[in-house]
Amino acid sequence: MLLETDNLHVVVEGKEILKGINLSMEKGEVIAIMGHNASGKTTLVLTLAGFPRYIVSKGKIVFDGKDITNLTIYERAKLGIAVAFQSPPTIRGLRFGDMIAFAAGKNPWILKDSKFIEEILRKVDLEPSIYMDRELNVGFSGGERKRSELAQLFAMKPKLMILDEIDSGVDIDSLRILGNSLKNYIEENNCAVMIITHHRHILQYVKPNKVYIMSKGKIVLTGSYEELIPKIEALGYEALIKEVLKNELEG
Amino acid sequence: MSWKDRYRDLALQALTKRAAYGSDIDINKFIDKTEEKTMINDEIKNKVLEVGIELSQEKSGIYFQVDHSVVLSRVASNIKGLEILPIDEALLRYDWLKSYYWKAISVDQDKYTAIAELKSTKGYFIRAAPYTKISQPIQACLYIHSQGLLQAPHNIIIAEEGSEINIITGCTIGSKVNYGLHIGISEFYVKKNAKIIFTMVHSWNEGTYVRPRTGVIIEDGGVFISNYILLKPVRDLQAYPTAYLIGKDAKAKFNSIIYGSQDSIIDLGSRIILMNEGCSGESIFKVVATGNAKVYNRGQIIGQNRNTKGHLECRGMILCPTASIVAIPELIAEHSETELSHEAAIGKLQEEQLNYLMARGIPPDDAIGILVKGFLDPGLPGIPEILQSEIRKKIFTAIRR
């Protein structure tokens, strides 16, 4: 088992947001976590990443056999958890190329060979001569930011990638690039991926083994891609959840 | 009475005069006598590298003073129209130079200007002939090598009409020296349509007191850009350079990059007086304060003529609850057609950015270093790329230590 959350309860600024999440992922597995807005998806992402605002009030997180519930963001990243953020910040004075080197655990200021940076940028279709020297995320379009996130994750060579709405705010061309880059990377590196999304778009490129649907801080549905995606498309989250609950009650 | 004696008399009268800002230093506890230095050893070479001075590299010219001894003073053979001389030699050679001596600063401004005149511990004279444009930097370095030394060089820099020069000055102290006092007197004369870019890198230690005194006189269309960089701790530094924009359309800009750490007391400002039509001035002060550092930024712009513009900016970041930053902007409009503004923002490190970097596996201290570097180093306008990259390297080195 790569990741396991056991009855995970999370409090943010005194309010309980996650109410008993049980989740498990095998090494190299791809899962999707879906749900409507404010269902707790991003809270789950930032809790797994170790952001201090997200306090685990009950339950635990086990990663690669180790209880990481009380580890810092940095310690979790070093263990192999890498997160692509929904709204990454701009950082003035930090070159994008340097950030890739840092993510790869190298110091760009004493780096002799920057070829690997160029290779990583090309994997997400960002031309190194244009992007290497740009300040991180400054003036980047939505699609460029998401590709920048993915490039940084590739540089980290993680065991688990958590992608928080990697497909939101991107046009169809960027989606294709993101989807194909991700697919290629997973095939080459056997990396586990948790895809947090509202839509099926990105899942057409990287098909998950399991789909979880969240609502009000809980996982309310689990199923296969083939089973759940057509229902989400047909009914939407709210009606689907209602229908399932109704069936359960009747059953 | 000779012209020199007149200055000496004025200096004697000002010898106990406190400076307008900063704590009062007992100058008697410092020594002014030292042996003649002629050698440059590896320790000195490495130390001056920290302030951007590469003794091994031939730039357009160099002046290097250790304590009170002029070790190097020369112009590269391929450079025409540039003169670099020790100030005492220049005053002997050029009678006209006395009309520049103590004209941009008053000898009796305070006890520090006074002692500089009375001790006369060398300094440099740099002059660019009319219409000479030299892109390669001129290097100047003042180095304190003796324990407890009072070093008070007097520098005069003249950019004649239409000329352009670029000076990197590094001031530093030997690693075995625990304390000292550096008073640098610098008088700049920027003639019609001339330009001086003056980049000063200071690297002191916890026992050094520093009291630079700078005056700049800028004529029609002249441009003066000062970049001041202080990244290492200092005991107590106070400076308040003043630019007098006497000519039409003259421009002055002061950029400061300060990393105040340990118990440093840094009181640094600038004054820009827009005296003629169309003049403009700007002061951009960026500071990061940590440890017990106390940093004051005093900025003053005085608009005295029509179509003049001035802007003051102070951006501060505090990394530690025991550090402090005080911004004291002053805008003085003495003409109805002057336009003056100021902007100040002091805050802490952005937690969102810090978390983001750590989520990439960057250790917390390095993540802080990256953000501090980004905050201090957005690029200095008007600086050639070669200098920019030098400054960047220095910021990285200082923060990462």
From TrEMBL, chain B:
The transmembrane residues are none
SUPFAM superfamilies per the UniProt record, alphabetical: Stabilizer of iron transporter SufD
Q: Name any Gene Ontology BP term.
A: iron-sulfur cluster assembly
The family database entries (Pfam families) matched by this protein are listed as: SUFBD_core
Top-rank lineage group of the source organism = Archaea
Record-linked InterPro entries: Fe-S_cluster_assembly_SufBD, SUF_FeS_clus_asmbl_SufBD_core, SUF_FeS_clus_asmbl_SufBD_sf
Q: Where is the SUF system FeS cluster assembly SufBD core domain?
A: 145-375
The family line of this record is: Belongs to the iron-sulfur cluster assembly SufBD family.
Recorded protein name is SufD family Fe-S cluster assembly protein
Organism expressing this protein natively: Thermoproteota archaeon
